[in-house]
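Request from the bench team (R.T.):
"We need a structural guess for the complex before ordering more flavin-adenine dinucleotide. Sequence and SMILES attached. Just send the tokens back."

Command: build protein-flavin-adenine dinucleotide structure.
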Amino acid sequence: MSTPAPQRKVAVIGSGIAGLAGAIRLAAQGLAVDVFEAEHTVGGKISEQHVDGFRFDRGPSVLTMPQYIDDLFRLAGEDPAAHIRYERLDPVFHYFFADGSRFQSHADRERFITALSELTVTRPEELRTFFHRAARKLELTDPVFLQRSLHRLRNYTDRATFRGLFHLGALQAFTTMDRANRRLLRDPRTVALFNQYASYNGSDPFQAPATLNLIAHYELGLGAYYPVGGMYRIAAELHGLAERLGVRFHLGTPVERILTERRRVTGIRVGGADLPYTAVLANADVHHVFRILLPDVKGPRLVLDRPRSSSVVVFFWGMEGTSPELGLHNLFLSGDQRDEYEHLFRAKNIGADPSVYVYISSKKNPADAPPGMENWFVMISVPPLSERTDTEAEMDKLRARAREAAITKLSRLLGRDVSAAIRVERTMDPRTIAQRTRSAFGSVYGYSSNGMLSAFLRHANFSRRVKGLYLSGGSVHPGPSIPLSLLSAKIASGMVVEAVGK
Ligand SMILES: Cc1cc2nc3c(=O)[nH]c(=O)nc-3n(C[C@H](O)[C@H](O)[C@H](O)COP(=O)(O)OP(=O)(O)OC[C@H]3O[C@@H](n4cnc5c(N)ncnc54)[C@H](O)[C@@H]3O)c2cc1C
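Reply to R.T.: structure attached below.
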């Protein structure tokens, strides 16, 4: 009688979006998967809270590429629409410029162009060129830089890569977003509007390569969506799908160590007990993985010690009354963007007039607030924790400044004292983010993209130093955000299946 093959087991560390997606992909391939999550709920940065009749999404709010979520249901042979539905947004954002002018970004391209060229001195051709270039950047980078590993030699030898490299000029990798935008767009408000897409991955438009102008194409070309019921539905529905595929979840169970023998994964340590696993798919921040979970392995310093992305302070305000001039997504732009980013990335502080983002999910989902009220998620970018801000007193000061700046700006541009309408208040800052998600230094988007080589300096989806260790999530290739984290899970889980077999 032949002996049965040993059960191949994979431990997933963390149930952020990439942990959930990785577990689903592995289980759909027939692997036995256990997910260990330090918190008592799944989702990582995608989370929600209920306070006195208000529901607040606590993390991401702008959803692009929902088809990557749908793919996971299809892999399991399920109909995504039976579980989660999305509404395409139009308008996408309500913009409030510092001079008091307002603009709504319409999903319809011509409507967008007409409205912005009527409001500003931007010519329609400038905008058409911007959109064409942004789309082209995504078309060139997607197959080469986003959909697969950048760290495998064999991925550099096919036509798509050569095409990408041949068209390096179109990527505008050697100039900054701000420089490229100023060269093309004559109106400073239009430049500011497109520059601010750098903040979508916690970067600085005055340092980040103009390649990142492709982010605008995700939102305005491919579309921004709202998941019916709120952002947390994404995590909750993927949790359900994973369980239906047989994934076992261990919530409130922090992993203490990744166990290795001769540089190969042998298991993990949880609650002092050593559990054997053939492979580990780490969804935790790569800094946490090497510095805390693998203290005896020298992590790649060039990768791990790079500057982190920015963080945020968020105020969750339950507001009395309703605001017809506001939509689901609202951005009150800084009047001095250069000063804003100088403070954020160089002085490690908040400038005199920071941009303020306000997300009101009760505009789409009235049940998120009591009748006649709204749930405001008010966000300001701040530096991640550092020697300058990691004392409690310093961080409290920064948070107080952010609150004052938000109230001043919103009150001025809305023409009323917004603080008078606040009935309920909760706060999130880099400390909370670091505690709840173990994101190093409380940064929101892993590492910053403030450099031409940043895409190449992100950690790979596998470890060269520890065999059997794979990595996914916003801190590794191809980068942060829901869609890119989902791609990281696809790449990393593909590697696990290749290595461990079915
Ligand atoms: C305020 C905010 C706004 C954002 N806005 C947007 C947006 O509008 N659109 C967008 O696309 N993205 C946005 N993002 C970014 C997006 O949320 C993240 O890029 C994405 O969710 C990262 O997911 P992840 O897979 O890296 O895991 P994370 O969400 O970072 O989760 C990692 C998980 O691992 C767990 N973990 C860590 N260490 C251990 C351990 N030792 N043992 C067990 N578990 C462990 C953590 O508890 C956590 O649950 C935003 C993020 C924040 C915080």
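Two things stood out. Confidence is low (pLDDT under 50) at residues 1-6. The pocket of flavin-adenine dinucleotide is lined by residues 13-19, 36-39, 44-46, 59-62, 254-255, 283-284, 288, 293, 312, 314, 433, 437-439, 444-445, 473-474, 480-482, 485 (CB under 6 Å).
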